[in-house]
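Practice set, problem 2.
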Amino acid sequence: MTTLSTAYTAATYGADGYEVTVECSARRGLPSFEIVGLPDAAIRESENRIFTGSDSSGFPIPSASISVNLAPADKRKEGTAIELAVVVAIYRCFGFIHANTEDMCFIGEISFSGEVRPVRGVLGMTIAAIQNGRCEIFVPKENLREASVACREGISIYGVDSIRSLVEHLAGRAPIPPTETNPYAALADRPSTLDFSQVKGQYRAKRAMEVAAAGGHNVLLIGPPGSGKSMLAKRLPTILPKMSYEEALDATKIWSCAGMLSEEIPFVLERPFRSPHHSLSTAALVGGGKIPSPGEISLSHNGVLFLDEFPEFKKDALEALRQPIEDKVVTITRAAGRVTYPSSFMMVCAMNPCKCGYYGSRTGKCTCKPADIKAYLAKISGPMLDRIDIQVEMPELSFNELTDTRPAESSSAIRERVEAARDLSRERFRAAGFSDWSSRSNALMETDELRHFCALDEEGTRVMEEVFTRTNLSARAYDRILRVARTLADLEAVTKGPREADGMIGGRVKKRHLTEAAQMRALDRKYW
């Protein structure tokens, strides 16, 4: 009987994984089983699953004093993904497995019947194992497609359905065929049933959504019921640039950690679109729980967070959004530890102008009192409004607009301009020497970048001075107008050229860009 053996597995911390070394010691003595290394309650309960599952598989564990250490011992381990590696380490101690497992990683939960059950966070754990030099990864069969997204040359990923099949594979008696190819490229292009051509009228709103997509700006849509706010918001992902492999990987890790992937949907192919109900709690929106899990803002990472009926959301939930909107990450602190999730999303908000929905409508159907309208709008705080770059009013459609049969511009045509404008902004960041230029957008420009990329001439300075003094802009709102103006200049360079003018990629920000950008956030002065 070998007294000491080692196997490798992985665990998750936030959306990312980290490697865990499983050390097993088996000694003659009274039968006992102990796991140390800061295991959670689920791991401490694994004894029954491991012993019963081994019996069912035909490999009963002999009576001995067994101790298992999970390293690093100072980091709390959560979940049941380590159980398969614990079985391997124990089996190596008792000689059931003789294979060299140094380059292998084992992930999975054990059932009483000896089957290997799927677990959350497999993609992040697989990536962590590969980064630590493991070239053979064993995961539950139901998680195989998800884990295969991380596959690359020299890496083999195996889908294991039971303890017995794993032992037979390691003994060379019944090899499990590996997945050695990444299926992402074959599945990445899937047509969408939603398209901007399906939206009647609302040309100003469509223009605003194009600008928002080109610069990554947040949008507020205000209008009566039936004006098309939700319809337009749901089609925003169809004009956003297609996700890169790295962006899809980041989004998939978060969804995997939240347990939202399945065998049919093993990874996130399209930009996420999350539309939570306004009754959700703050923890559900930003993340939380005893063991911090990702919330809606993290599930929207690299995609769109749509908040319909914006004023109906709980006040504390909306205010909790302010920091993630600025920092693009959310940090959740609990007694068990602190977890940081990425939350770089575009926020699209939709609301009626009053409780009944018809304030300012040309139909004159509003029944709200002035005090009721003021109270309704007051649910949205000034600091939250400051963080919304573009505000668009969407009136009711006229009969002519509703019955217009002329073909409207398609999402693919708009997306071409959006991607071209994003290319210009990335090229500008790259030329300026930013290391993260490939993931930046105009909405993420810091103060120094604004002063450089949005430098105003004398005429532009006069325009912004007039806007600032007449509308009592805050410093944050002033910067956001400049960011939108920069995006407008990029779109103009894409459609009219030149792509570089006055020594600036995308051209300089002009008076016409500033004027349009200021008009795109004028509704907070009209309503608030």
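Problem 2, part (b): a different protein.
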Amino acid sequence: MDFKEHITDKLTELTGLDRDTVRAAMETPPDEKLGDLAFPCFPLAKVMRKAPPLIAQELASKLSADELIEKVDAVGGYLNFFFDRAAFITDTISAAREAGDGWGRSDIGRGKTVLVEYSSPNIAKPFHIGHLFSTAVGNSLARIYKFLGYDVQSLNHLGDWGTQFGKLICAYKRWGDPEVIAKDPINELLKIYVKFHEEAEKDPSLEDEARDYFKKLEDGDEEATALWSRFRDLSLDEFNRIYDMLGVKFDSYNGEAFYSDKMDEVVELLDEKGLLVESEGARVVDLSDMDMPPCIILKSDGATIYATRDIAAALYRHRTYNFYKNIYVVGLPQSLHFRQIFETMRRAGWEWSKDCVHVGFGLVKLPGKSMSTRHGDVIFLEDVLNESIEKTRAIIEKNNSDVDDADAVAKKIGIGAVLYTFLKNSREKDIVFSWDTMLDFDGESAPYCMYGYARGRSILRRAEGIDHSSADLSAAVSDDAYTLVKHLAGFGAAVEDAAAKNEPFYVTRYVTNLVKLFNKFYNTNPIMRDDVPEDVKKARLAIVDTVCTVIRSALSLLGIGVVESM
């Protein structure tokens, strides 16, 4: 039974308002002592020609308690509803247990395709810690949308085209050693790429040489194409090893190169619409009326740039997927770029451009470190993940934790800790990297949430001989049990909020608060103690079982696994 809908029915009948108006007006009181739901009577003042407090009192007198409502209070201009706690706990836990891993799921996305572009590292450059922001947010959003019934396509728009490949080919031809590169491909390719920039500062003619190599690549030169293909394959091997560690999978790796033969059409279409104008030899879309710089489509030398490729990609995706949403999980510094291409597509008359969304995120701050691969100062993501795993392993050993496979547990917790760090706040907020905070087993962290799950599973293992499948859930009524179950009931709403705002932290915040409430519950509601009545014990075990299921589901939406003991 949906308690809110039940109250909506009663108020609709009494007030004469339509259901949608009543439902939309409902509020959750800031303090649980004021009730579970509140209805403000102020909108009725003009219709009933009475002061809201009088209206509230009149309606309260007509609303009697029933099997779902314990009482109704009139406070000021509000009607405050108090649910029958036994009924609410019984209804919620029964429904959640029947749904299992499907609790909180929805079919609101049925028949709609959502594209999520994320990660998108550059070929021949290492996967650094900065890439994880896009990867963590994008992977979580993809999981969240799938949970809500959408057909989700995860896209990795690889940076595999552009003048940097001319530079890399130039560097390889001058300083590359095939045998050395074969042993450690990405690191060695990075070294010669960095060396190119160092040498180009002394000899600017290298930049011209690099442009010539990229031109050869664009023209399909056999040697240049073979080198580019080799660099791409080596890079994907490297990236996929990291993605496997993170549990991330993609449906498409179509990068910039894939769209290189699709850009002429973009230029033609924009030209036909009369959108292209000359500007210092380049062909651009003038966006000055929107207080934006022009969107460059063709540079003065006739070459295309990121904007052209991104527009070509959007057009291809629309034709291929007929998407409901086309989401780009790309850093906030690219906000202007996306505003420019979205506005250009809108002016081209592509109505679907309104469904293209830039989901920006902040910066990763590490003391004394830069994220620039141009100068070689880079924190490799694999190193961070391995260090997190090692530090977690040391904590497990120090605490003498009794776990079956310490290495596997350390890997799940260590990687989960890193992912949680990137998802625990609004994505636009910068991240300050801190091992102490990340691996804190008592604070807001993945280890804290995972420990809550493991603690619940430990309780259930101790109770293996007790059948709680048909427990009388009304026996579990208490203040802390009720607060916990109310939070369990809100899981689906938290997931929908995360999707509506493209903010995974709604799920992170939800599961962290769930674990906090669970900790309080089992500290104030003893379960396996000898003096606990059998019916109470079974009811509380049913709640523990449900909490574990929801913790696991919520963490999964963040790309974080669980461990049975720690």
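Answer key, part (b): Residues 370-376 have pLDDT under 50 and may be disordered. The domain at 381-557 is CATH 1.10.730.10 (Isoleucyl-tRNA Synthetase; Domain 1).
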